[in-house]
Write a structure and sequence with these properties.
This protein has 452 residues and is α/β, with parallel strands linked by helices. The chain has two domains: 5-302 and 358-450, no CATH class; 312-353. Helices cover 31% and strands 26% of the residues. It has nine helices and 22 strands. It has an eight-stranded mixed beta sheet. The protein has a four-stranded mixed beta sheet with strand order 17-18-19-21. A two-stranded antiparallel ribbon has the order 2-3. The chain is globular and about 75 Å long. The two termini are 24 Å apart. The mean pLDDT is 96.
Length: 452
């Protein structure tokens, strides 16, 4: 039989203190009141005797590389320190996040370092990410890797809704007659089952596309439904010591119900976790084929054009007017209206003030046997993920968003014609209309290189 991989995995609790803010509405940085369920950083280390790879899956909304301030790069510092500890080159480390929204605001919609406790906490989280990667690396043993596919229906929906005029309906609650989803979903669940050669332990890696926003903008720390799903997997797959969730191309994919409660968190987590357990049980059979123990990595950084920026003066005027009207408003309803208008003007000002310099975007492709893991640094629309899967020359392709940076939404040109939140002027979408497909085309070329 073919010589197996060497694989190791580890996880550490990274639940933050309550002095670290989450992403709120008013104000944008709001503080947690407590912890509903813990957050984890999980790591999988692989080598084939030639090429080493470390994959981190972190319960976080995303990590902007601007988090640590000017002249510093979050991913580069984490990966550089992992290299110091393990010898694995930084370009062969993937730092991915689940995009759970009930986690600290680390995507830099506002400057986190303005929070007094943020600097020391960021130093701790870097240490924790380096530690979990190092533990996974030092724990390697001969292992087989197997592939499986499943499907989850009834969990996700395309959240952009088209009205009869071909434009996005303004509010997610309003679905008038003649409206329809603006695009597809991706119900596939991809799974890697990593089993120690002696059968003593296993690790599961799952890839699925759906926004973990079930309980967003509420004051309790939570890993949302991916946390429930991975705990379910660890409890129900025999000898499973760790399970990693890699978020897919879910930029415009939400759960079937809008922001609700922890009851739905549990339901969605069980739906996903049960499918992962089923597929893991199928591929754990001794007769199921193993992946060829071959690893390769391609990492390329491309510069993406910034969207066209509107005149700053217009939004400064709107901001100032809203601030003035807020102070003279006669009712709480009026104050809420002007507060909202002021914040939307502020979002545009933040976008404009971040400038028009091209945005560096790292695309990383990891080959594991017959499987390509494609990591993108923002929030890719599902349409981009489906194109990658359909056009990839790899026999099997997992698409991973929110990895190695957070540069905002990666959209399609059609989305800009349709309008909607994702392309509205704000720091959540700095990349222009062509950026998403530019990364897809680059990733497809990288996959070809690894398969030739």
């Amino acid at each position: 039989m073919t010589t197996p991989f060497r694989a190791g995995s580890a996880k550490v609790d990274i639940t933050p203190p309550l002095t670290i803010p989450h992403l709120g509405y008013e104000p944008r940085h709001a503080f947690f009141h407590g912890v509903h369920d813990p957050l984890y950083a999980r790591a999988l280390a692989l080598d084939d005797g030639v090429t080493p790879v470390i994959i981190l899956a972190v319960d976080a909304i995303g990590f902007s590389n601007e988090l640590l301030g000017p002249g510093r790069n979050f991913t580069a510092e984490v990966c550089g320190r992992i290299t110091e500890q393990t010898g694995v080159p930084g370009a062969q480390v993937m730092l991915a996040t689940t995009h759970a929204h009930s986690t600290p605001e680390t995507i830099h919609l506002r400057r986190l370092l303005d929070t007094p406790a943020a600097g020391p906490w960021l130093a701790v989280i870097v240490d924790q990410l380096v530690s979990v990667a190092t533990m996974a690396w030092t724990g390697r043993c001969p292992s087989w890797v197997k592939l499986g596919w499943g499907e989850v229906s009834g969990l996700s929906r395309h959240r952009r809704v088209l009205g009869a005029d071909g434009r996005i309906v303004a509010g997610p609650e309003r679905t008038p007659v003649g409206s329809q989803p603006a695009g597809p979903i991706d119900p596939q669940v991809g799974l890697l089952y990593i089993e120690a050669e002696d059968g003593s332990t296993c690790t599961v890696l799952a890839n699925f596309a759906c926004h973990p926003v079930t309980v967003q903008v509420q004051p309790l720390v939570s890993a949302d439904f991916p946390g429930v799903a991975m705990r379910f997997v660890e409890r129900n797959v025999p000898r499973c010591v760790n399970s990693l969730f890699l978020q897919g191309a879910c930029g415009n994919i939400n759960p079937v119900r809008n922001t609700t409660d922890f009851g739905d968190v549990e339901r969605y987590g069980l739906m996903l976790g049960a499918e992962v357990v089923k597929v893991a049980a199928q591929v754990s059979a001794p007769s199921h084929p193993v992946l060829t123990p071959h690893l390769a990595v391609s990492t390329t950084t491309r510069l993406l054009a910034v969207r066209d920026l509107p005149p700053r003066a217009d939004y400064q005027q709107a901001f100032d007017e809203a601030a003035q009207q807020f102070t003279t408003a006669q009712s709480e309803e009026e104050r809420a209206t002007w507060r909202r208008k002021q914040r939307m003007a502020e979002e545009a000002l933040v976008l404009i003030d971040r400038g028009s310099a091209p945005i560096p975007a790292e695309v990383q492709v990891v080959r594991i046997g017959e499987v390509a893991l494609v990591a993108l640094p923002g929030e890719p629309f599902v349409e981009l993920g489906l194109v990658l899967k359909e056009q990839s020359v790899a026999p099997h392709t997992f698409v991973i968003g929110y990895a190695n940076d957070w540069i905002g939404y990666l959209t399609t040109p059609e989305a800009w014609a349709q309008g909607g939140y994702e392309v509205a002027p704000g720091p959540w979408t700095r990349v222009g209309p062509a950026g998403g497909y530019a990364l897809v085309e680059g990733a497809l070329e990288q996959i070809k290189q690894l398969w030739t």
